[in-house]
Amino acid sequence: MAHLIEIRDMYKIYEIGDEPVHALDGVSLSVDEGEFVAIMGSSGSGKSTMLNILGCLDVPTRGSYLLDGTEVAARTPTELAHIRNRKLGFVFQNFNLLPRTSALENVELPDLYMGRLGRRKRRERAMELLERVGLKGREGHTPAQLSGGQQQRVAIARALMNNPPVVFADEPTGNLDTKSSVEIMNLFTELSREGITIVMVTHEDDIAAYARRHVVMRDGKIMRDDIRDGSGKKTQDEVAKLVKEALA
Amino acid sequence: MSLLTIFRVSLRALGRNFVRSFLSCLGIGVGIVAVILAMAIGQGAKTMMVKEISSMGNNLMMVFPERRNQGPVSGGMGQGQNMTAGDAEAVKKELGHLVQGVSPMVRTTVQMMYAAKNWSGNVQGVSPDICLISNWTVTDGRFFTEEETAQCARVCLIGTTVKGNLFADDEDPVGKVIRLKNMTFKIVGVLGSKGANNWGQDQDDVVMAPYTSVQRYLQRSKFRTINMMNISLVSMDNLEETTREVSALLRQRHHLADYQDDDFETRDTTEIMNTIGSVTGIVGALLLIFSVITLVVGGIGIMNIMLVSVTERIKEIGLRMAIGATPANILVQFILEAVVLSTVGGAAGVVIGIGCSYLVGFMMGWPVLVATGSAVMAFAISSVVGLFFGFYPAYRASKLNPIDCLRYE
């Protein structure tokens, strides 16, 4: 069976000063449908570069990238935009919601560019998604009127809008407090159980613990790639305990 | 993504920065106001001048004797000695269906005296038809009659400038006798004021007397020639026909053979109108150039704002690209924003410009002419300005790399 994501012998080389920096140094990785992968590593390990290339936001210097069976390594900006729009969802560390725009409109945005649904159906789907991430009743709130955790939920709903097979998350809890972090990670776990492939970059072990597979990078190379049980999902009691610890 | 959707996206983006959008609209708006004002003022001034020209005379056509050259010295216009009052009478008699009035004119400058005051001025010898031809009115007394003309009566009318210089304010000149070149003339009326003409000449500095009397008592010339004749046409539409007929008649009267040139010249106000048209055309072109410059400045203002906007919203651009906006989507969005800014500014400019035109017209006493065409054109220009100056910032935005945008701090 073909992998959902398959990169082979991928290089990303930046010219900084005289020294070429190998952000990715011959990486190969494949991700199957339904996996929940955490890419880990310290800063400068190449994990963000990896995510940007996987997310078709950046192009590799060398190497091949098969996404859902098609080669996407060398495409025009317009083609990449279409791929991102239809196949990929993004959740960023700093949420990246449009300011002064309602949660509903933020969630609708990907379909505006896809133009798949009509105006009414688009609104319906956005409402459904907001309800699913637990923001029913806050559709009209602008980002400024929402907490960090709520903003990240809007971003997740937006990532799901076009029903992409893969969602990429770049340090999704990096700007959140412990309680919100746990809530967001539980949401990701639920999405994963529903069959959505999630690739997440993080440098925090307890966040990575939610993922079933850990890919650890260093100096542009994959150091470790192991399957965990992904038992990170915590019960309400555990959340309460964590919050208490954080406050203490 | 449909154009309509992008349009809505653009509108929302502008709405989020209302003050800034408003200010950049203002730049274009001022430019459009300038364009409309320039056009309206140009048109108004032209209409006003045309009106003043027509105050010179009622469907006026003038005939001058040819220039008389004495050896190498060229004589002035109207100095020829070959046109007589008989020519004028013939025109009136023979071409009655084309002309409604004909007056010969003889001109001379004399010293005029009344009591202890004296004044040097222009005496025009005319026939009573001149009232109709040159739109003269009489405020006190009456005009002289055909009989007085036939009898070489020593009667005259004086213009307000002459009146002011010879008579005290409370003195009624009608019935008084003044001396022109030591000949006594009785004042029968005062001419209504016409003010200065288009060349700044005071039209009220004049004494009018029957041309016969001027010829006999003031010029004392044995040739009885006239300086020019003024003809009032029944209609300007017949100008060409009348010119032809008058020429034919005069050629016949002057016994000119076919090979000989005319010994007279005709002039009509269309020539003067054309001159004025070209002058107002130049002024109009100047005003238009200035307003175009204003528009360009407004356009640069929009370009500046759009460049700032692209930089400021670079994360928004990155995000839009990340979730699927193509470079073309971004290009169109930012161009549309610029076009919306400039057309909204343009529309406001059209409305304010028309208002200002009426205000200026009211203050200057000009007729205001705002052509619908100029309003539509101004509006179209503003959209084009938006398109033109919006393109570069939009192009820059569309060429951005999504990852650089998202990382931008």
What does this structure look like?
The complex is a heterodimer of chains A (248) and B (409). With 248 residues, chain A is of the alpha/beta class. Chain A has one domain: Rossmann fold. In chain A, 36% of the residues lie in helices and 26% in strands. Chain A is built from eight helices and ten strands. Chain A has helices at 47-54, 77-87, 103-114, 119-132, 148-160, 178-193, 205-208, 236-247, and strands at residues 5-16, 19-31, 36-40, 62-67, 70-71, 88-91, 166-170, 197-201, 213-218, 221-227. In chain A, a hairpin with a 2-residue loop joins β1 (5-16) and β2. Chain A is globular. With 409 residues, chain B is α+β, with helices and mostly antiparallel strands. Chain B folds into two domains: 3-52 and 274-407, no CATH class; 83-262, no CATH class. In chain B, 56% of the residues lie in helices and 18% in strands. Chain B contains 13 helices and twelve strands. In chain B, strands 4-5-10-7-9-8 form a six-stranded mixed β-barrel. A two-stranded antiparallel sheet of chain B has the order 2-3. Chain B is elongated. The mean pLDDT of chain B is 85. Classes of the chains: A alpha/beta (248), B alpha+beta (409). The interface between A and B is medium-sized, with 27 and 24 residues.
